[in-house]
Amino acid sequence: MDGSGSGWADAAARLEARFHRHEAVIGVIGLGYVGLPLARAIGERGFRVLGFDIDPAKVAQLGAGQSYIRHIPGAAFAALAAAGRFQASADFARLAEADAILVCVPTPLNRHREPDLSMVEATTRQIARTLRPGQLVVLESTTYPGTCRDVMLPILQAGGLRGGVDFFLAYSPEREDPGNTAFDTAGIPKVVGADDAAAQRLALALYGQVVKRTVPVSSLAAAEAVKLTENVFRAVNIALVNELKVVYAAMGIDIWEVIEAAKTKPFGYMPFYPGPGLGGHCIPIDPFYLTWKAREFGIATRFIELAGEINTAMPRHVLDLLAGALDRVHRRGLNGSRILLLGMAYKKNIDDLRESPSLRLLELLEGRGAEVDFHDPFIAELPTLREHPALLGRRGVAWDAAALPHYHAALIATDHDAVDYATLVARCPLVVDTRNACERAGIVGAANVVKA
User: Fold this and answer.
1) What is the DSSP letter of 418?
2) In a domain, 228, yes or no
3) Which of 6, 25, 92, 388 is most solvent-facing, going by the fewest CB within 10 Å?
4) Annotation says 438 is catalytic
């Protein structure tokens, strides 16, 4: 992208002015856990937002002032729509109306644990069909360095328009943390990268009107690498505490007690916590994007891959502990045992199932012959799940204290605050706790609670 000539400079200057005056129309593609809060934040700053999604049910719900994500209120979109600042659509021909197009689509792994950019590519082709001079395109989806330049740019330029001259391409990685009330979209600093000065300036001008702080970096690839670095860091450290959990348990030491004491050190230590496996769209996936890309350069990412192996092994480790506890308490194995799986979301107090280790635990338990019910206060029924198609339509059970004694064990996989842990421990003969939820609820020293 060369960014030469006066015409492009005039067009960029006009678009930048529209951003500063909040007159630009902003298109957000993908109205999920990233795109929906982003669309809300932009609309609440006075921009007119067009939200695009391929799911007509989502479009219809938003049009009716309803939300399908628990922590994002539908009333916010009803208010924006009433003010003329938000409209959801499945008509991608309307992308031509947008001055900036922000892409927030999933970037999963395929069955070989390799990057699946099919949704990024399909979305980019949709944008290319209506791409016009003067538009800014920004990818927010997590991906490997080189995606914008090597995958998106050729598709966008296939119609004859030139990046950095006729249109502008930038990358700004999403940093959403669903359910974290301490940080909203506008309060999280926004990293912005581009390969030409005009695209960088435009992206900074847009995001500068929406978030409290923008963080420019030198290139598209550098911005892409920032997101991977953040999540590789978390994946590796979670793997470390998962491994320490296993080691310390063999020594009769409680990893949770150790972490609580260690985090009192005011420098040189950051607490990470063990669990039944990794969940969410980012941490279980992003490291594999980097290891895949590193192979292109002949570099082995042994440290990252080892962390992936440790975290991936955690569900089976939990099952082994559960099986051992069943043998001690009931003199029986998993086969034929009635298990209550508590929590299907990948973390507490949200309804997000993406990559949740609970899904794997459910499959493994039933694969070992267990009879499994699940209870999640935020998830009544399992939706379509790309990696777990056989679980479609499975319904959870309501909380019923009277039923707890009839289970051989309860397995706490997600530590939702809405669960009555005192009643659980009092009435269920065996509780296997992967999140230290019982102790954090003030239940200390219960003989029927096993930490896993």
Assistant:
1) T
2) no
3) 6
4) no
> Does the reported pTM lie above 0.85?
yes
pLDDT in tens, 67-88: 999 889 999 999 999 999 999 9
- Per the CB < 8 A criterion, the answer to whether 450 and 434 are in contact is no
Structure tokens at 140: 């927010």
The domain spanning residue 278 has which CATH number?
3.40.50.720
Instruction: Name the E strands within 184-343.
Output: 190-194, 214-216, 338-342
3-state secondary structure of 129: helix
Which of 174, 192, 218 is the endpoint of a domain?
218
Residue 69 belongs to domain spanning: 6-218
Catalytic residue among 148, 282, 428, 438: 282
Phi, psi of 164, deg, nearest 5: 85, -5
User: Using CA atoms, how far apart are residues 283 and 186, in angstroms rounded to an integer?
Assistant: 22
Q: What six digits make up the tokens of 78?
A: 């009803």
CB 368 within 8 Å of CB 319: yes
Q: Calculate the alpha carbon distances from 388 to 32, 119, 162, 335 in Å.
A: 19, 19, 42, 22
CA gap 168, 94 in Å, rounded:
19
When pLDDT is averaged across residues 284-302 and rounded to a whole number, the result is: 92
Residue partners of 21: CB distance under 8 A and separation at least 6: none
141 belongs to a structural domain: yes
Confidence tier at 1 by pLDDT (50, 70, 90): low
Is residue 258 one of the residues assigned to a domain? Answer: yes
